Amino acid sequence: MTYLDTDKQTYADLSITETANNEQFLFSLFSRTETKEGKSLMMNWIMYPLSDLDMIRKRQEAVAWDALPELLLNEEELDFIEYYLAYRDQIREAHVLLSCATVIDRLLRYDSTRYVICRGVKLVIHLLHCLERWAKELDEDAPQLMKESARMVNDILSGSELGEVLEQTSGEERRLSNYTIDKYDYLFRCTRLLSLKELLSVLYLLDVCRTAHRVAKEKNFCCTPKVVETMDFSVEGVVHPFVKNVRENSWVMSRGNISIFTGSNMAGKSTTLKALTLAVWLAHCGLPVPVKSMVCPLYEGIYTSINLPDSLRDGRSHFMAEVLRIKEVMQKALTGKRCLVVLDEMFRGTNAKDAFEASLAVNELLKRFSCCHFLISTHILEYAKAFEKDPACCFYYMEAEIIDDAFVCHHRLLQGISEARVGYWVVKKLLAGLI
């Protein structure tokens, strides 16, 4: 399996699993799994997006399947099985004489270790029967990921000691002798421990798919965005998943490999860039995406420069941090990887003239990386206009205007370059009486 490359700055910018600025983090969208291990697996999916088209499509197909079954065991039972399998006390091979010699003692004296072993053995046997039935009854039109899981279950159970357990306990799960419990306990916690872990992973996969499917239904997300091996990139009805009463927007990389976003402060440029990037991220996780539909390339890397910190310790200014981040990203692009790069407000840490000239220089360099897409927001209209006729660039802006002496943000993404200049109006409005 091939994973998409990214870095710590991108995780922070997109608030993937945690955030320092009170934003909701992406994992919270899908964190309502029914099991603890299911939550860990979901975290793994979100933390490590794929660059593997076949696996992405398998996940999408499984999540979109309307016939996903209920979990075969409840959370408490699965937690106890995990506890039992990790329990290290009294792991020994079964012996008839020892089992017989201790039977009276076990009847007369409560032994917490014995309780863990007895209940753990019975629950594992129940698990084996449930998985065997599920694998046998799986529909022929089931998603490939489910079929592969069913094949794994059958392979583990057939022709092994676990298969013998199924035969020996059919209809007799709760009528087990002390010797039989001791024998199965050694088999489960020692001989076939790894096999049981693999079998449990099937239930956690079901948990993740069921949770993602439920989120898609509740929030009207798209389960099957189209991930392609070309450079086609378009989105219809994209929203930021954590913005309430948000307007849906559509966008397409209509030409070239650079899309420049303009618009006034507070119009929503940064939020739109994050919405587009999160949509691509989730698509590469194989999870539902907050869009009506989407076509995006199979990227090998995603990198962002949105909330860059300066560093007092290193004596690094914000401007220097920006330059070094752009250099770092371009070095990734130089490897020939197909990357999505998001640059929010390049060179905000320097004066307007320097920012304009530096943006022109960077834009000329980015045009060379035809295998990458660059989404860039800017306040510098002169920078956008300098490339207005350039076939390497397309342009979008967030609509905002002054109406009846009020600043109105429509949060609508339109093609073209914004002409809005409202900064001075905002200053006059908020500092009225001081100027």
From TrEMBL:
<dbReference type="InterPro" id="IPR036187">
    <property type="entry name" value="DNA_mismatch_repair_MutS_sf"/>
</dbReference>
<dbReference type="GO" id="GO:0030983">
    <property type="term" value="F:mismatched DNA binding"/>
</dbReference>
<dbReference type="InterPro" id="IPR007696">
    <property type="entry name" value="DNA_mismatch_repair_MutS_core"/>
</dbReference>
<dbReference type="Pfam" id="PF00488">
    <property type="entry name" value="MutS_V"/>
</dbReference>
<feature type="domain" description="DNA mismatch repair proteins mutS family">
    <location>
        <begin position="256"/>
        <end position="433"/>
    </location>
</feature>
<keyword id="KW-0234">DNA repair</keyword>
<keyword id="KW-0067">ATP-binding</keyword>
<keyword id="KW-0547">Nucleotide-binding</keyword>
<dbReference type="InterPro" id="IPR000432">
    <property type="entry name" value="DNA_mismatch_repair_MutS_C"/>
</dbReference>
<dbReference type="Pfam" id="PF05192">
    <property type="entry name" value="MutS_III"/>
</dbReference>
<keyword id="KW-0238">DNA-binding</keyword>
<keyword id="KW-0227">DNA damage</keyword>
<dbReference type="GO" id="GO:0005524">
    <property type="term" value="F:ATP binding"/>
</dbReference>
<comment type="similarity">
    <text>Belongs to the DNA mismatch repair MutS family.</text>
</comment>
<dbReference type="GO" id="GO:0140664">
    <property type="term" value="F:ATP-dependent DNA damage sensor activity"/>
</dbReference>
<dbReference type="InterPro" id="IPR045076">
    <property type="entry name" value="MutS"/>
</dbReference>
<dbReference type="InterPro" id="IPR027417">
    <property type="entry name" value="P-loop_NTPase"/>
</dbReference>
<dbReference type="GO" id="GO:0006298">
    <property type="term" value="P:mismatch repair"/>
</dbReference>
<protein>
    <submittedName>
        <fullName>DNA mismatch repair protein MutS</fullName>
    </submittedName>
</protein>
